[in-house]
Amino acid sequence: MTLRSLIKTFWFTCISLFCSIGFAQENVSENESEITSKSSFLDSEGRQRFFAITAGGHKPFTSGDNFMGDGLEGKSGIDFKVQMYIYKHFFIGLATGASYFDVKNQELVGSYRKSRIAENYIYLGYEFLPTEKLRLGLNISIDSDLDYKNTGFSTSDIAEQHDSAKLNRYGLYLHYELAKHFMIYLDYSYNVSTTDINVPSELKDFFGKGKYSTIGLGLVFTIGSRDLISRFIN
User: Fold this and answer.
1) For a surface tag, which of 45, 63, 65, 152 has the fewest beta carbons within 10 Å of its beta carbon?
2) What is the pTM (predicted TM-score) of this model?
3) Residue 22: domain span
4) CB neighbours of 100 closer than 8 A, spacing ≥ 6?
């Protein structure tokens, strides 16, 4: 099973959980009452969640002496993520999205005008609680599947071109709690894609890695008030 198929399966599973187990357990365990407990920068029982879904957009910025930094200019992007809290505020997540670029130097990258990166990755992270309404999260990708699609070729016999890559992603975010299960987020990520683009050996360093950062904004929806392990041991 490919990573892309895994993410689609996980999304379907999450939706099923939201419709059945999640809301039922929320109503039974809490009866719409607030959990009272001590809070700290590292942990808060009252602010614990089970699942979080994020949806939003981002702006990509290319950088470095590579085919992306010198040849592409970031335009826009979309993000969808699901993360499950395994123990306290430690989480694992699956993400899918896309980043869109315009070509600013065809002499360096080729005779196409636009490029899109389809991004699918698994990530790990931890959430900190600096204030009553804020959540600070750090995360890192552990597996990934990127697809570059280049379009707008000057020759009519080529409609589009695809290249694959792996992603190393390092991210952080801030969530601001508008309500118990509804937040807005601002995030930043630094991304290094390792490609398998077929080029002469003297160009391997230039095309072997592409670097870009993203700044994103969007919405967060959560369910549940206990992490996964606590559901089994309590």
Assistant:
1) 65
2) 0.84
3) 3-35+43-233
4) 60, 74, 75, 76, 77, 114, 115, 116
For residue 56, give the CATH number of its domain.
2.40.160.20
pLDDT in tens, 137-176: 999 999 999 999 999 998 767 888 999 999 999 999 999 9
Question: How far is the C-alpha of 89 from the C-alpha of 124, rounded, in Å?
Answer: 11
CA distance 116 to 47: 37
Tens-place pLDDT, residues 9-52: 555 555 555 545 444 444 444 443 444 455 677 677 888 999 99
Q: Is 107 exposed, middle or buried (0-12, 13-18, 19+ CB in 10 A)?
A: exposed
**3-class secondary-structure state, position 20:** helix
How many domains does the chain divide into? 1
* Residue 162: C-alpha distances to residues 72, 101, 112, 148, 197 (Å): 16, 14, 12, 5, 9
Q: Are 84 and 49 in contact (CB under 8 A)?
A: no
**Nearest to 60, CA basis, from 95, 99, 98:** 99
Place of tokens 């990127």: 146
Q: What residues contact residue 232 under an 8 Å CB cut-off, 6+ apart?
A: none
